[in-house]
């Protein structure tokens, strides 16, 4: 099993990586603003499930794919960039809250699958396995435990982003102000595309 020191180090790493801005947190902030925390719940759950699955897949050796097939990484970057730019376009064109409410938040499956093309999640998953899961006996159990601990730390961190958007929502009643905030969110979402190519 993982030592206490290793678990504490992993928890600290998970906190830093999930509280800081990235594609998921920008989208959760925007979703909290548009739909509130409750309606963003499936989006949150999809992010968590997809991230845990990515940690397990990297632990199973999927990370080696990029070493043997470098073009696979380029395909993922292009797919992730395209998806983020599409979402940024949706945010840019979002109008009043009543119009946004008629739309739907990102679904569980969509959020989970997005983790496959999210470069920050690849970095997190690869680091979790490389730095915190030693090879040897009970390797599979250690991968699962490391993934679960990472997700446990991530829950409050990413929920804060959705709650922040929801809090902003309660203060805004002016459609012009909302449009401006949506456009700032759109620019932030588009800017995260840079992370895909670093």
From TrEMBL:
Q: Where in the cell is it found?
A: Cell membrane
Which controlled-vocabulary keywords does the entry list?
Cell membrane, Membrane, Transmembrane, Transmembrane helix
Instruction: Report the membrane topology from the UniProt record.
Output: Multi-pass membrane protein
- Transmembrane segments in this chain: where? 12-35, 47-71, 112-133, 145-168, 180-197
Q: Do the record's keywords include Membrane? A: yes
Protein origin, superkingdom = Bacteria
Task: Tell me one Pfam family matched here.
Answer: LysE
The main location is membrane
Q: Which PANTHER family match?
A: ARGININE EXPORTER PROTEIN ARGO, ARGININE EXPORTER PROTEIN ARGO-RELATED
Q: Which protein, by its recorded name, is this?
A: LysE family translocator
Q: Which organism is it from?
A: Thermithiobacillus plumbiphilus
